[in-house]
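Work Package 3 (structural annotation) set out to generate three-dimensional models for the target panel prioritized at the project kickoff. During this period the team completed the workflow that converts sequence records into discrete structure tokens, so that structures can be stored uniformly alongside our sequence database. As a representative example, we reproduce one entry of 455 residues exactly as it appears in the project archive.
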Amino acid sequence: MPESSFFTPLYTTPLYTAAEMRAAEERFPGFPNTAPELIERAGTAVAQHTLERFPDAQRFAVVCGSGSNGGDGRIVARVLREAGRDAVETHAVEQADVIVDALAGTGFRGEPRPKATALIARMNAAGAPVVSVDLPSGIDASTGEIGAVAVEAELTVTFHGTKVGLVVAPGRFRAGEVVCVDIGLEERATEHRLVKEEILELVPRKRPEDNKYSAGSVLVIGGASGLTGAACLAAEAALRADAGYVAVAVPADSLSVVEVKLLEPVKLTWDRVGQAAGKAKAVAIGPGLGRSAEAKQLRAGLLEELDQPVVLDADALHELEPGNWRPPVVLTPHAGELGPLLGEESAWVDAHRVEAARRAASRFGCVCLLKGADTIVAAPEGNVLVCAADAPALATAGTGDVLTGILAAFLAKGLEPALAAAAAATALAAAAHRVPLSRGVIASDVIAALPHVLR
């Protein structure tokens, strides 16, 4: 993806790996002799946020490790004592009102040692809220991966910039509320970026001179018998994502169903796909495609013939193999779909989300959007965009098809693949937040909310 758009602070913020944090610290004037100054700033900030969050707490157990994270913790304990609190550096956490976790910091990787594992388990079982210093102990700062166990924090006070492991699952689900404090380090470019909702400003609006084709024309291919709903949702989402023209190609025996269900899109059968593709600026293959030999042959032929961007979703990902594909492609798997493409179980993908998305982008030579609460967009050159949705309403059937339609619309409007994928994931989550329901949200509710979130 172009660096100019990838690193633009208007649309993304940096996410730091452990190595990038070390590099930032080493650039601090006078480092390493000035390291105590950084530790003082960090520990003081944690203590202040802890007191603000728990003003009535009196007894604080500060669990310190042997590294710099432990040094931060010792400053926390001192500042808390100066504020009149009973704060001790201890492993005896059971009687504390609040536990401060300063056991392991950004340098942690892999499995905690047995004593650390037992101590983390005690912190989690103590029944007191936990404030983690920089990130919860047991989380890999660079990936969000967890070994045997990790601290379950209510509040994490992190320094300089948010760490990858605080926004990528499974780590993100252990971090609680994350507060980022400035300790005086210089911001630099990072390989991972957190997407802001402002990215939707990049989606081109319809211009006075546009017609339905120049405003973004999309072809959706899928809709096998029994699966027509997926193609319909994708088509409707593309229109609500501001595409000017949408056509839907389905098998002949499904045509009568989509004729009744869909009003605005053009309906046609698979044998007319070649003709319809000539009008499309982006093509989505997969929603309800099915896994028949005919479907796989159709997919293969289109990847050889098309020039415009292609989204491969759902059944179009089944038994997919890398190839010298002619068009730019975006894959949009969930963990269960991505695992087989990498020779892994879906549980492995869930535990190694950044690595899985990057491996897929590298193996297939295209952008991979790995769906989830922390949707990850990986580009073949290694850059990663993270979209932290926090939209549990999307845990319902059909929202993946909605995402495919939005993405196809944004590609048809001319956004390059990685940014289109990140913008589509952001629009989906924003639309879910706009639905005026707390429960019972369905995919079509999200589609209806899309025009309200596009700027």
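Residues 35-53 form the longest helix (19 residues).
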